Task: structure prediction
Amino acid sequence: MTAGFTPYPAEFAVRYRAAGHWRGETFGRMLRERAAGHGERVAIVDPAGEGRRWTYAELDRRADRMAAGLVARGIRRGDRVVVQLPNVAEFFEVVFGLFRIGALPVFALPAHRYTEIVHFCSFTGAVAYVIPDVDGGFDYRELADRVRAESPALRLVLVAGEDPGEHARLADVPCDSPLGGEFGEPQPGDVAFLQLSGGSTGVPKLIPRTHDDYIYSLRGSAELCGLDQDSVYLCALPAAHNFPLSSPGSLGTLYAGGRVVLCPQPGPETAFPLIGREGVTITGLVPPLALLWLDAAERGARGFASLEVLLVGGAKFSEEAARRVGPLLGCTLQQVFGMAEGLVNYTRLDDPEDVITTTQGRPISPDDEIRVVDDHDRDVPDGTTGHLLTRGPYTIRGYWNAPGHNADSFTADGFYRTGDLVRRTSTGHLVVEGRAKDQINRGGEKVAAEEIENHLLAHPAVHDAAVVSMPDPYLGERTCAYVVLRRSERERPPKVVELKRFVRGRGLADYKVPDRVEFVDAFPATGIGKVSKKDLRAAIATSLRTATGPNAGPNAGPNAGPNAGPNAGPNAGPNAGPNAGPNRKQ
Ligand code: OOB
Result:
């Protein structure tokens, strides 16, 4: 068992095993078995460059060689390794190599930058960091130079690509020497990797998932998405995210013995030809991408005829858009409402059309326990909106090394407080009605308000900051930062672009830079004197409606409305009330 991990209580572990959910599988053995059963079948297709097609036997061999090479470079069981790769075949070679030796991948996303990566490395004490050389015009080697200087435990940076700069080439790592027996085999109950939480706190929390629990979630997903050996899954979203990884995702597809096709860009111009060429049968998208695909199909783009199932999740998919999927893409929609912490809900392939288009599905497992409660943790009846709490065979019992957060995020009896507001229908399906957590869901990309507020507060002109969501026809939500300037700065306020540049300059993922900034003299207060984010959300929604009209198209996007200067927002006026005080958060 790994330090920092909250184990499942013994009586639950016994129950989950007895029910056949946890079958004592590990990722290392899973791949070995598939390779033994049908080694000649293609497992991974990476169309980049000359194109690569790895069979199960090839992936298995590569995982072994990578594992041996990593050990030769000093990586040991239980070590953490930050993996930040785009959708390339090496992702699977590295991850399965790490699984084999029981070292834990920490799944960073390609969008993450200095601040996030330094946090992942220092918080986990990572000994290695795996990156591409350049991807999407960004040089990850330079990022790694800076990260390394800040991360004492980091001994090794491995670069997938020809020119590793100051670092080592990933391609030079694999070797043939057999693994020494001293490593033992990872156990099914061991933590397999650390996922990232969407987060609502100052820094992202890490999610420890075990072989047993994660394999159950992807086996269950694969079954109810109808995967088999003939399935071809297009990995269009970033491979390391929980949705394309396990719902049913690439790992669910490999479990079922199917084929994973890596898509370098998720837009229809790249994805449709690839679907056509590879005979893709199933894929998963966030709502904004699904909208792009639908629009492309409506304009006459073709190539997706082989597609049988489209999963949409990560953020709420509107009923209107959901109803367009069948007619335009000719496939069955499956809504997915999941979370890296565990619980995943799906509409079923044979659900009635209305259920598929108006709900976000029901849990994978009969042993997923769902509670919908009021503000005092009292259960509310079906049909009433409340807070979603959940416990089950693939939902974590605690974040990694975070006792303080765990006390807030879990009930005493182990239910995870999802922060989502849902309603349960009489059929047991869940409808997501909103969110109680302080997070903005920017088309599936999660932005923790507090994290961005802390970056804004670091600006010398900023006295206080409150980040809220604003409605957006394309992404669903975007971020709006309300800012109170220091009194001395109000005569000559900084420009909005300057504040954005400042936040970006702090080195964080681009999607976290506020889409809009509004200056106010004070924040509206709740009855007990806290910042009323509800009022701020209402204010920006009203101001957008008046500025852009009800028919504002999808491009009325970031700052498309007039970013009226200081004093444009609520409570504009000279009386900085009780909430004008600094609000620095930890
Ligand atoms: C997925 O995972 P995360 O960890 O990035 O985000 C989880 C949160 C949920 O708590 C919920 O707030 C939101 O994302 N969410 C949805 C949703 N699916 C996720 N909100 C409304 N409707 C949906 N369909 O986003 C994730 C993980 C596995 C599968 C799918 C998505």
Remarks:
- The pocket of OOB is lined by residues 198, 242-243, 247, 313-316, 335-340, 344, 360, 418, 420, 432, 435, 441, 446 (CB under 6 Å).
- The chain has a mean pLDDT of 92.
